[in-house]
């Protein structure tokens, strides 16, 4: 009986110490990030895609991966936020390529800027993700056919621009910044430097509105 008590107390002490270490690490990381300016690197870079009038100086920075299923699902929430507050916020897109064809899709996105069609192409990439990015059967070339249904998009020009678009540098910088900010997966969002803790509609709106109406 005495031995069981010793074992139980030992396990309790080890678990408590582990939880304390995790808490301390999270607090230290959060404190370090809070000291960074949310209007500059590593949150925002010159090459970062930006949307919104930002009349109230609220920066919503989202790390995405075009091949990430969670990003596709949460995209509807981010779009709704943008529709509601596009005059007051600036939405900033950063990349974290964690899948086989992520860089292919990022090249398509960056090439689409030449036609000012970034948002429409991103919508289509997420909408058709199940077709071109099936697990263990990825066929990114199918994306070209799907993009033909995007109104006003010249797919042949997009293909030509794609061939001349190199995203290695921006992907590398974004990954380095993600590491500095403790971003491990996508989507990950920061609002004026504060990390969104839970990917829900309400949590995102609450965090943004806390900055807009403080």
Write up this protein:
The model has no long low-confidence stretch (mean pLDDT 90). This protein is globular. Strands 1-3-2-4-5 form a 5-stranded mixed β-sheet, sandwiched between helices. α3 packs antiparallel against α4 (118-127) and α3 crosses α7. It has 9 helices and 5 strands. The protein has 214 residues and is an alpha+beta fold. Keywords: Disulfide bond, Membrane, Oxidoreductase, Redox-active center, Signal, Transmembrane, Transmembrane helix. It comes from Arcobacter roscoffensis. Pfam families: Thioredoxin_4 (PF13462). The chain crosses the membrane at residues 6-25.
Q: What's the gyration radius in Å?
A: 21 Å
Determine the number of helices (DSSP H or I, runs of at least 4 residues). Answer: 9
Low-confidence stretches: none
In what range is the share of β-strand residues?
Answer: 5-15%
**Oligomer, anyone?**
single chain
Largest sheet: 5 strands, mixed
Overall form? globular
Mean pLDDT over the residues: 90
What percent of residues adopt helix (DSSP H or I)?
A: 40-55%
Topology, number of strands = 5
Q: Which strand order spans the largest sheet, edge to edge or round the barrel?
A: 1-3-2-4-5
Quick overview:
This protein is α+β, with helices and mostly antiparallel strands. It has 9 helices and 5 strands. The protein has helices at residues 2-34, 69-85, 102-112, 118-127, 129-132, 142-147, 155-163, 168-180, 201-212; strands spanning 49-51, 58-64, 89-95, 188-191, 194-195.
Topology:
Layout (H helix, E strand, L loop, with lengths): L1 H33 L14 E3 L6 E7 L4 H17 L3 E7 L6 H11 L5 H10 L1 H4 L9 H6 L7 H9 L4 H13 L7 E4 L2 E2 L5 H12 L2
Parallel strand pairs: 2-3
Antiparallel strand pairs: 1-3, 2-4, 4-5
Helix pairs in contact: 3-4, 3-7
Family: Belongs to the thioredoxin family. DsbA subfamily.
InterPro entries: Thioredoxin-like_fold, Thioredoxin-like_sf
Keywords: Disulfide bond, Membrane, Oxidoreductase, Redox-active center, Signal, Transmembrane, Transmembrane helix
């Amino acid at each position: 009986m005495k031995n069981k008590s010793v074992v139980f107390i030992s396990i309790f002490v080890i678990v408590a110490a582990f939880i304390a270490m995790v808490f301390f690490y999270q607090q230290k990381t959060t404190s370090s990030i809070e000291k960074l300016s949310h209007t500059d690197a590593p949150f925002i870079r010159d090459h970062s895609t930006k949307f919104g009038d930002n009349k109230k100086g609220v920066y919503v920075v989202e790390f995405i991966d075009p091949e990430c299923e969670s990003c596709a699902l949460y995209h509807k929430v981010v779009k709704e936020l943008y529709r509601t507050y596009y005059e007051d916020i600036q939405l900033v897109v950063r990349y974290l390529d964690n899948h086989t064809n992520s860089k292919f899709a990022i090249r398509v996105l960056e090439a689409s800027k030449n036609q000012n069609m970034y948002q429409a192409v991103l919508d289509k990439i997420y909408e058709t993700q199940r077709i071109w990015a099936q697990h263990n059967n990825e066929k990114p070339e199918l994306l070209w056919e799907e993009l033909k249904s995007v109104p006003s998009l010249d797919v042949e020009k997009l293909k030509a621009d794609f061939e001349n678009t190199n995203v290695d540098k921006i992907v590398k910088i974004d990954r380095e910044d993600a590491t500095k900010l403790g971003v491990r997966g996508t989507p990950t969002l920061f609002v004026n430097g504060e990390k969104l803790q839970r990917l829900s509609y309400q949590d995102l709106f609450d965090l943004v509105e806390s900055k807009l109406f403080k």
